[in-house]
Amino acid sequence: MYDAGKIIAALLLFLALVGLPIWANLARGGSRPPELEIGATEKQCVAPVEYMRKYHMKLLQQWCDAVVRDGDRIYVAQDGRRYEMSLSRTCLGCHSTKKGFCDRCHDYARVTPNCWNCHQEPTKENR
Amino acid sequence: MDGSRRDFLKMCGLFVLAMGLKPVARAFGMDARPQMLPAPEALKARRWAMVVDLKKCKGDCTACIDACHRVHNVPTFDDPRHEIKWIWREKYADAFPSQYHAHTEENVKSKPLVVLCNHCDNPPCTRVCPVKATWKRAEDGIVMMDFHRCIGCRYCMAACPYGARSFNWFDPRPHIRQMNLDFPTRTKGVVEKCNFCVERLAKGQRPACVEACAQAPNGQALLFGDLQDPASEVSRVLAARFSVQRKPELGTRPQVYYIV
Questions:
Q1: Which among B258, B254, B259 is positioned nearest to B119, based on CA atoms?
Q2: Which of B142, B156, B246, B250 is the most exposed place for a label (fewest CB within 10 A)?
């Protein structure tokens, strides 16, 4: 191979630059998922915690379609309990802090769901 | 391999039987899975319609408009170009341009009347929507809006002959006087209009404007009900008294009727 030294050095430099965020994070001792303020008053969510953690966005999308497109408002969970399908009332009625629950994890995961452009967080004034 | 062909076929048969059990179990409700249902207290109809009794409606009362705006987080913009309209006041000449003439009765001519989305039986707005963000609900005829889907192209605004649709040129939130948690606000870049209070009907409540009007001093100028039910109040009133629709010549079959 011609210029093997140059090529390998350039490759190493490239890896160092591309992986800069990873190296920086590792140097700081790695990143850990944030501690969330669950803030829940109920013991059981509308679905098992594992499912909610992975698929809450899918569930919310199903709720959205059911309410807006089909006019269905009541969710009968797997264990037979009934809930009103409402982000502001049901979800945030129980998880009392959007900042410590939704936002903290979304910030960590660097996702910006647009739910809150229109749906409101319960406050003292609008409740 | 010590299994015979007979054993293999037996296993295949058992497998097919087991697969067949699943739908049977589901049919008998043994397989619990989440369900979505309408609320039992929901008001139902085959054709929702509204009657505006202009004999009772006072031109200077805004009880219906205030109630609607409060319930639906409708923003207030001072510039009429940015105005968001759900139910609003219109001059007779503009609401009924084909009825109006130079010698129209003074009382009718001068008094503003309330107008709103007509929830047409043949709505032109839904036909032009490229993303099905607006559609006529098959079961009760309400012309629905899905703000999640609206891409803000405003074809529906061009198609609506009643000017019942408004576009959010700005973020409406800073212009909402009082927030209601039970209804979302809208965001910049979507179209909105009257929804016949579909979210209240789903909870067994009548439209906000109708309720507010019933409590207003003159009262009962707005009636709401099922036109497919001959015993409903709207059916009886329309059968007994002379009524008109806005721009019926366009063939949209509007479902807001006016008693003049």
A1: B254
A2: B250
Total structural domains in chain B? 2
In a domain, A41, yes or no: no
Write out the residue range of the structural domain in which residue B187 sits: 48-259
Residues B64 and B3 in one domain: no
- Structurally, chain A folds into a number of domains equal to 2
- From B33's Cα to the closest Cα of chain A, the distance in A is 5
Taking the C-alpha atoms of residue B238 and residue B18, their distance in angstroms, rounded to an integer, is: 60
**Nearest chain B residue (CA) to A127:** B181
Residue B40 located in a structural domain: no
pLDDT digits (tens, 9 = 90+) for B18-52: 888 877 877 776 666 788 999 999 999 999 999 99
Clarify whether residues B132 and B68 are in a common domain.
Answer: yes
User: CATH no. for residue B71?
Assistant: 3.30.70.20
pLDDT value of position B96:
94
Q: What is the pLDDT of residue B218?
A: 76
Task: Look up the pTM and report it.
Answer: 0.84
Spatial separation of the C-alpha atoms in residues B194 and B210, rounded to whole Å:
13
**Chain B nearest CA to A126, separation (Å):** 5
Contact between B51 and B237 (Cβ < 8 Å): yes
B35 vs A: CB within 8 A: yes
- Interface contact flag, A71 B198, Cβ < 8 Å: yes
Average pLDDT of the residues in A30-43: 85
Q: Which of residues 95-114 of B touch A (CB under 8 A)?
A: none
Residue A112 sits at the chain B interface (C-beta within 8 Å): no
* B34 CA to centre of own chain: 28
Distance from the Cα of A108 to chain B's closest Cα (Å) equals 25
Inform me whether the C-beta atom of residue A124 falls under 8 Å from chain B C-beta atoms.
Answer: no
- Whether B197 is in a domain gets the answer yes
Sign of CA dihedral B128, B133, B137, B143: negative
